[in-house]
Amino acid sequence: MTSDIVLPAKIVVFPSQKPRVIAHFTPQEQYLTRTYKYWYDAQLGICNGKKPDTTFVYRLPFQTGTTSIVLQAAAADSTQGKPWSRGVIFGLPENTPVCAARAGIVTDIRQGSNKSGGRGRLPDTNMIVVFHDDGTYAVYTHFRQNGAAVYEGQRVNQGDVLGFSGKTGWVRQPCLGFNVQYSAQPHPRLVPTLFQTDNTQVHYLKTGQTVTTP
């Protein structure tokens, strides 16, 4: 096939209510009996090469007065400069309201699964993605089936209810997964996240820590 743009190509697509054609592929006549496939990777975010502001303080992603144990922190000891290789997992009973840790726009909702288990269940994770004004986005995971309380394109404020916790995907107990990412090459990267843990304290979370939303 031939393409009307030089491949490989990197294309920034801005938000729009209308579909946008980004490339045309034309089969060559002598190969019309063949089967063709193409591949692309997509990232959400503002692709400007700038690193995000890591001083922003996030709200704990549940309602005021809700207590949770941090089952997994973002790093073994993030304050000592070790890499942020994974998100936070909060222990939460099923059907606990999950709230926006930061204001933004809901860009993706997956809520059709009711399955959980080992690594092979990773694709069965229900999730909600919220895009922030600075180009970062938060990924909330493990919602119950049909547990979303928002819709794609909805603007949410910090503290608004996004949905209800569950046990879907690669988990063996009810919980909530949370991480913040930004666009980078070759893959998105995690953002260190500070949380307001009470009326005066701001922390990087630790595994085993008990937290309550102020």
From TrEMBL:
- Ranges for domain M23ase beta-sheet core come to 86-185
GO MF annotation terms: metalloendopeptidase activity
What Gene3D superfamilies does the record point to?
Answer: Glucose Permease (Domain IIA)
Tell me the CDD domains matching this sequence: M23_peptidase
Report the Pfam families cross-referenced here. Peptidase_M23
**Superkingdom, according to UniProt?**
Bacteria
**Do you know which InterPro entries this protein is assigned to?**
Cell_wall_metabolism_enzyme, Dup_hybrid_motif, M23ase_b-sheet_dom
Classification via PANTHER family: PEPTIDASE M23, PEPTIDASE-RELATED
Its recorded name reads: M23 family metallopeptidase
Question: Per the UniProt entry, what species is this protein from, by scientific name?
Answer: Hymenobacter cellulosilyticus
